[in-house]
Amino acid sequence: MIHNITEERKKLNRCDVSLPAPLTDEELARLIGAVEERELLHAPGHLRENVFSKISAERRQTKKRALFSYRAKVIAGMAAALAVLFLVPVDGTEKADMPQAGILGAMYGGETRNVDEWEQDLIDRQRDIEKTWARYREGQERADARRQYFRQFSEKLRNH
């Protein structure tokens, strides 16, 4: 039943008035002869240049949009980072009871506190570096002791 319906639709589509009827053999032979005698219509010479210029213009526009989008994202990220820097409170690392040092304390006031904090940060970093170096040296010493142990062990095995 369904098969018959699809066949009927195909027949209706073939007989559709909007579709031109297929060419007969005589009409087809005339068309072939006409094409062989004179060539078909050609596109205008400037059409190719126009198409390629439009394509290149679209590519340029796409690149410009991508660059603008990238710049906008970078600016938004920078603005967000600056907003976070200004809005996030700083830890209570300041020490109000520290005396100001001599003339510099009288002249610059708060700036010496910043210098002292920088010096303290440098000292802390130096301590971290020294601790890391000490751990490295201990690891090297352990590795050397391990190698020495295995050498002695392998020599004992060879001797026996």
Can you tag this structure with a few keywords?
160 residues, mainly alpha, 2 domains, 0% strand
Give structural notes.
It is a single chain. The chain folds into 2 domains: 27-87; 96-160, no CATH class. Helices cover 79% and strands 0% of the residues. It has 5 helices and no strands. The protein has helices at residues 2-14, 25-37, 45-87, 102-108, 110-159. The longest helix is centred in the C-terminal third of the chain and has 50 residues, at 110-159. The termini are far apart. The model is unreliable at 99-104 (pLDDT under 50).
Number of strands: 0
What percent strand?
under 5%
Structural class: mainly alpha
Unreliable runs, pLDDT <50, ≥5 residues?
99-104
Helix content: over 70%
Largest β sheet strand count, sense and barrel closure? none
The overall pLDDT average reads 79
Please trace the helix and strand order, writing H or E for each element.
Answer: HHHHH
Principal-axes shape call: elongated
Tell me the number of structural domains: 2
Termini separation comes to 96 Å
What count of helical segments does DSSP give? Answer: 5
- Rg calc: 44 Å
